[in-house]
Specification:
- By secondary structure, the protein is α/β, with parallel strands linked by helices.
- The chain folds into two domains: 2-148, Up-down Bundle (Ferritin), CATH 1.20.1260.30; 158-433, 3-Layer(aba) Sandwich (Rossmann fold), CATH 3.40.50.150.
- The protein has helices at 2-14, 22-51, 66-69, 86-102, 104-107, 114-123, 132-142, 150-170, 172-175, 181-191, 208-217, 224-232, 242-255, 296-299, 309-320, 341-353, 407-417, 457-481; strands at residues 199-201, 235-239, 261-264, 281-286, 321-332, 354-361, 374-381, 387-392, 426-430.
- Strand 2 (235-239), helix 13 (242-255) and strand 3 (261-264) form a beta-alpha-beta unit.
- The longest helix is centred in the first third of the chain and has 30 residues, at 22-51.
- The chain is globular and about 100 Å long.
Length: 482
C-alpha cells in the first residue's frame, strides 16, 4: 500500500512545474511527511494525557494542525469537499503556514526540543509546489500513511531510503547525502557499538550511519531503561545543509527514533581546542564531504590548517572521541600519500594519538558518480599506532549504478578484520618501517607483483621514431619489389 502511495506521489510531483528533480521530490516529500508524522504523534500524546487525567497542550495551534488545513474531514469521517485547494491552498501554505512554522525557530532555545526541530526544518525550506491542485493530491496521498505502528514505520523507512538513494544518484550535490548502506553496515560491525555508548556523526547528511547503527543496536529484549537510552541519549548528529538536515531528521524518525538529536549547524565552525569531556563520544562514524573549501577564519579552529574540508573534519573527529573511543571514517585514498604539509602533519598526528589499526581500501565505483577512490580508516584514540592492517576490497566485478556494492562483497573483510591475517588481499604494515619524514601510508599490496615502471616521455618518443624508421624501411622494400 505504501509503495503504491509513494509511486502516486511521484506522478503528482512530476506533473507540477515547480518540481524539477529528485532533490525537489525528496525535499517536498520530507516536509509533508514531517507534518503528517507530527499530527500522528500529537494525537498519540493527547490520548496518553487523557488516560493519565492530564490536560494536553498541542505543539501546533489549531488553524495549522494537519486535520484543519491538510486533511479536514466531515462528520462522517470522509474528506471534506470544501478543503482548501488551488490558489487558496498555495496562498495559505506560503503566506500563513510556513511563516508560522518558521517562527518556532526564534521561540525555541533548546536544540533538543521538538519546537526547535520544527523551526529548523522550515527555516530555509520553501514550498515548491506551484499548483494547488497538485499539492491537494499530494496531501490526500500523504494522509493515507500511518506512523502509528513500528511495521508502518519500517515500510516507510525503506521507501524513504530508496528516495534518498535515487536523489543521491541524480546529481553531484545529491550524492553528498548518500553512502552505500552495505559499506556503513560493515563499518558498524567492525566498530561494534553497544547500548550505553554515544554515537556521533558530525557530517550526518541523510543520517545513514545513525539509522544503520540504530538498526544494529535495537533488539526485542531491550529493557525499558535500555530502550530509553537508545531513543534519547545514544545518537548525535550535526549537518550544515538545510535539505540534508531535513532528510536526516525524517530518516531517523521513520527508522523509529522519535526525537533525533540532530542539530542544524556547521560543525567546522567549532573550535576543536574548546572541547570538554562532556562534549566527547564513544563512537564516531562518518563520511565527511571532501574537495570543498572552508574560509580562513574557519581554518583557525584547527591546529593543522587546510583548505581540504575532509582534513578539518578528521581533526574534529579525532578530538571528539573519548579516550579509548572508536572511529570509522571514509576519506579519499590520496590522504594516505599526499606530500603537502597538511597531509603529512595530519597523518603524523593520527599515528601518534590514535591506534590506526585497519585501513579498508575501497574499489573504484564504491560511491556512484564520484571520481575519486576512497579508504575507510578504523582507529581508537589514546594509544599510538604500531601496526596497520590493510584490506584491499575486490568484489571481482566493476561497480556501478546497476551493479552496486552489496553486503556479500564485504563479508570476508568483516570476518577477517578481528584476526587480521595475511592473505592475497590483506597485509600488515609495521609503522616503525615507514618514512618518518613523510609518514606515507599508501596502499601497496606486497602480494601483488610490482608493475614495470612507466616509460619516460623521452623514451616513448624515441620508441615511436624507431618504429617509424622500421616502417619506412619496410615500405621501401615493398616499393622495390613493385
Amino acid at each position: 500500500m505504501y509503495e503504491n502511495a509513494f509511486n502516486s506521489l511521484d506522478r503528482v510531483m512530476r506533473n507540477d512545474e515547480g518540481l524539477a528533480s529528485e532533490l525537489d521530490y525528496a525535499e517536498q516529500t520530507s516536509w509533508l511527511l514531517f507534518l503528517k508524522y507530527l499530527d500522528d504523534m500529537e494525537r498519540e500524546w493527547a490520548d496518553e494525557a487523557a488516560l493519565e487525567g492530564r490536560d494536553y497542550v498541542p505543539v501546533i495551534d489549531l488553524p495549522f494542525q494537519w486535520k484543519t488545513w491538510a486533511a479536514p474531514k466531515g462528520a462522517d469521517g470522509k474528506p471534506d469537499a470544501n478543503a482548501l485547494t488551488g490558489k487558496d491552498l498555495i496562498g495559505f501554505v506560503n503566506d500563513e503556514l510556513f511563516p508560522y512554522l518558521q517562527s518556532f525557530h526564534e521561540a525555541a532555545d533548546d536544540a533538543d526540543t521538538l519546537e526547535y526541530k520544527i523551526g529548523e526544518v522550515f527555516a530555509e525550506i520553501d514550498n515548491r509546489f506551484r499548483s494547488g491542485y497538485s499539492l491537494r493530491d499530494a496531501l490526500d496521498i500523504i494522509d493515507t500513511l500511518d506512523f502509528g505502528s513500528s511495521q508502518s514505520k519500517h515500510e516507510l523507512s525503506d521507501l524513504y531510503e530508496t528516495r534518498i538513494k535515487r536523489m543521491g544518484n541524480a546529481g553531484r550535490n545529491g550524492g553528498e547525502y548518500y553512502t552505500p548502506r552495505p559499506l556503513i553496515r560493515a563499518m558498524i560491525r567492525v566498530v561494534k557499538p553497544v547500548i550505553g555508548e554515544t554515537l556521533y556523526d558530525g557530517a550526518c547528511g541523510s543520517a545513514g550511519f545513525l539509522c544503520e547503527a540504530y538498526e544494529y543496536l535495537k533488539r526485542d529484549d531491550l529493557s525499558a531503561q535500555e530502550w530509553e537510552a537508545l531513543q534519547s541519549r545514544t545518537f548525535h548528529g550535526q549537518e550544515k545543509k538545510s535539505l540534508a538536515y531535513v532528510l536526516g531528521l525524517m530518516n531517523m524518525i521513520l527508522h523509529g527514533v522519535d526525537a533525533p538529536n540532530i542539530r542544524h549547524t556547521n560543525t567546522l565552525s567549532e573550535n576543536v581546542r574548546d572541547y570538554r569531556q562532556k562534549d566527547l563520544h564513544d563512537v564516531v562514524l562518518a563520511n565527511p564531504p571532501f574537495g570543498g573549501g572552508e574560509r580562513k577564519e574557519v581554518q583557525q579552529n584547527f591546529p593543522i590548517k587546510s583548505g581540504e574540508t575532509a582534513y578539518l573534519f578528521l581533526q574534529h573527529f579525532i578530538r571528539k572521541l573519548k579516550a579509548g573511543g572508536r572511529a570509522a571514517i571514509v576519506i579519499k585514498n590520496t590522504f594516505l600519500s599526499n606530500t603537502d604539509n597538511a597531509s603529512v602533519e595530519l597523518r603524523r598526528e593520527l599515528l601518534a594519538t590514535c591506534n590506526l589499526h585497519t585501513v579498508l581500501d575501497c574499489p573504484q565505483g564504491t560511491f556512484q558518480g564520484a571520481g575519486v577512490k576512497t579508504v575507510v580508516l578504523f582507529f581508537e584514540r589514546g594509544a599510538p599506532t604500531r601496526k596497520v592492517w590493510y584490506y584491499q576490497l575486490d568484489p571481482g566485478r566493476s561497480l556501478g549504478k546497476t551493479n552496486p556494492l552489496n553486503d556479500d562483497d564485504l563479508a570476508e573483510f568483516v570476518a577477517l578484520q578481528e584476526s587480521k591475517p595475511d592473505t592475497p588481499k590483506s597485509w600488515m604494515l609495521d609503522v616503525a618501517e615507514i618514512d618518518a619524514a613523510t609518514c606515507d601510508l599508501s596502499v601497496k599490496n606486497p602480494h601483488t607483483p610490482e608493475q614495470a615502471p612507466l616509460r619516460s616521455p623521452e623514451q616513448i618518443i624515441a620508441d615511436m621514431l624507431a618504429r617509424d624508421e622500421e616502417t619506412r624501411a619496410l615500405l621501401e622494400e615493398v616499393r622495390g619489389l613493385l
